[in-house]
């Protein structure tokens, strides 16, 4: 996802399978409700994220939060 994108909408990747994983750009600030619910992919969350919606990663395969993320 490019750095120009600032939010991932509700249910954007629900039940999605991305075999190579997904790297969210450094512009992402908000991840909506159920955005990656039951997604079968790995997601890298940058430090720019300040808000994560309800059950955003429920039953998701895996996610990684940038190590220096203060949020």
How does this structure look, described?
This protein has 71 residues and is an all-beta fold. It has no helices and six strands. The protein has strands spanning 7-8, 22-23, 30-31, 42-45, 51-52, 62-65. The model has no long low-confidence stretch (mean pLDDT 87).
Global mean pLDDT? 87
Low-confidence stretches: none
What gyration radius follows from the Cα positions, in whole Å?
11 Å
> Helical proportion?
under 10%
Q: Please count the beta strands (DSSP E, at least 2 residues each).
A: 6
- Counting helices, strands and paired strands, the structural category is mainly beta
Strand content: 15-25%
Number of helices: 0
Major sheet, described briefly?
A: 3 strands, parallel
Distance between the termini: 20 Å
From the spread of the alpha carbons, the general shape counts as globular
- List the secondary-structure elements in sequence, H or E: EEEEEE
- Strands ordered across the widest β-sheet: 1-3-5
Topology:
Blueprint: E1 7-8, E2 22-23, E3 30-31, E4 42-45, E5 51-52, E6 62-65
Parallel strand pairs: 1-3, 2-4, 3-5, 4-6
């Amino acid at each position: 996802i490019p750095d120009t994108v600032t939010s991932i909408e509700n249910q954007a990747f629900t039940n999605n399978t991305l075999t190579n994983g997904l790297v969210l750009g450094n512009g992402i600030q908000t991840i909506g409700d159920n955005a990656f619910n039951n997604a079968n992919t790995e997601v890298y969350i940058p430090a720019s994220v300040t808000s994560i919606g309800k059950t955003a990663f429920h039953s998701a395969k895996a996610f990684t939060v940038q190590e220096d993320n203060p949020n």
